[in-house]
Write a structure and sequence with these properties.
Helix 1 packs parallel to helix 3, helix 4 crosses helix 5 and helix 5 crosses helix 6. It is built from eleven helices and ten strands. The strands form two sheets. A six-stranded mixed β-sheet has the order 1-2-3-5-7-10, with helices on both faces. A four-stranded mixed β-sheet has the order 4-6-8-9. The radius of gyration is 19 Å and the shape is globular. The longest helix is centred in the first third of the chain and has 19 residues. A hairpin with a 2-residue loop joins strand 1 and strand 2. It is of the alpha/beta class. 47% of the residues lie in helices and 16% in strands.
C-alpha cells in the first residue's frame, strides 16, 4: 500500500516502520504524505496503541531530506515546514498513545518526530540532536516548540544553538527519553509498554491523553475544571462500570472500549 511505510499489527497494537534505508529513513515530501494518509485513516477503535520506529539498526530517522530542502526558496521552505509540523501534530493528537522506539539516529526531523510521540524508548546506540543551524535553518517541524517543553528552555537553547548531538544516556538524563535499553531489546520493551497500555480501559486512556495535551497551555483553574468534566464523562462508560465491578469482586476486567 505504501512505498516508504511498513505496517504491522500485534493484537491491538499497531507498529509503523518508516522504511527508506538508503537515506537512513530521512523524511521527504513523499514520506510525509504517506504518514499523513496513514494517520488520517488510523482506526483508533481497532488499535489501542501505536509504535513508531525506523527500518534497520542504524537510524530511526536521520532528519529531513537535505537533498530536497537544498533547492527550496522561502515560500517553498515554509510550505515544507508546515507540512511536516502538521503531520507531527496529527501524530501528537492521535487519540491513542504513541510510543517512539528510537533505534539509532534521531536527528533534526527525526528528533522532532520522536518528540511528537507520547513516550520515547531508545536503544543504547541512539543519538539525538537538532543540527539545523549548521545548515543555515532552524528546526522546522515544531522542534523549537516541543524540545523546550520536554527538557526546559535552557537545555533546549543549548542543543539548538550548538547543533550538538547527544547520546542515549544524556538524552535520558535531561528527560528527552523515558528509557534506554539494549538495541536487541528495544522492540520487546516498546511492545511490553504498549501491551500494558492496551490492557487498560481504552476510553479512559484516550481521555487521559486528551487531558494532558489540552491542559498543557491552560491556567491551573481552567485545567482543573476541564479535567473534572472529562472525569465525569468516564462514568457514562461501560468500561468504568465493568472495571470497578471487577475490582470490587477481585476479578480481572477485559475492557471493550464502550
Amino acid at each position: 500500500m505504501y512505498q516508504y511505510l511498513k505496517i504491522e499489527q500485534k493484537n491491538t497494537v499497531c507498529i509503523l516502520t518508516i522504511s527508506a534505508p538508503k537515506s537512513l529513513n530521512a523524511l521527504n515530501s513523499a514520506i510525509l504524505g504517506e504518514m499523513e494518509d496513514f494517520l488520517d485513516g488510523f482506526d483508533c477503535n481497532k488499535y489501542r496503541c501505536l509504535i513508531v520506529t525506523g527500518d534497520g539498526e542504524k537510524s530511526f530517522v536521520a532528519g529531513a531530506d537535505i537533498s530536497e530542502m537544498a533547492t527550496l526558496g522561502p515560500q517553498q521552505g515554509q510550505t515544507f515546514g508546515t507540512k511536516g509540523a502538521g503531520v507531527f501534530r496529527k501524530l501528537e493528537t492521535l487519540h491513542v498513545p504513541v510510543i517512539a522506539a528510537v533505534n539509532g539516529f534521531a536527528l533534526g526531523g527525526g528528533c522532532e518526530l520522536a518528540m511528537a510521540c507520547d513516550i520515547r524508548i531508545c536503544s543504547d546506540n541512539a543519538k539525538f540532536g537538532q543540527p539545523e543551524v549548521g545548515l543555515g535553518i532552524i528546526p522546522g517541524f515544531s522542534g523549537t516548540v516541543r524540545l523546550a517543553r520536554l527538557v526546559g528552555m535552557g537545555m533546549a537553547k543549548q542543543l539548538i544553538y550548538t547543533g550538538k548531538a547527544i547520546k542515549a544516556g544524556e538524552a535520558l538524563r535531561i528527560g528527552l527519553v523515558n528509557e534506554v535499553v539494549p538495541q536487541a531489546e528495544l522492540m520487546t520493551r516498546a511492545l511490553e509498554i504498549a501491551d500494558q497500555i492496551a490492557a487498560n480501559a481504552p476510553l479512559a486512556v484516550k481521555a487521559a491523553k486528551l487531558c494532558i495535551n489540552t491542559e498543557w497551555d491552560m491556567a491551573a483553574d481552567e485545567a482543573i475544571t476541564f479535567e473534572s468534566g472529562v472525569f465525569g464523562r468516564c462514568f457514562a462508560t461501560q468500561d468504568q462500570k465493568n472495571g470497578m465491578k471487577a475490582f470490587l469482586e477481585k476479578g480481572k476486567c477485559e475492557f471493550e472500549g464502550k
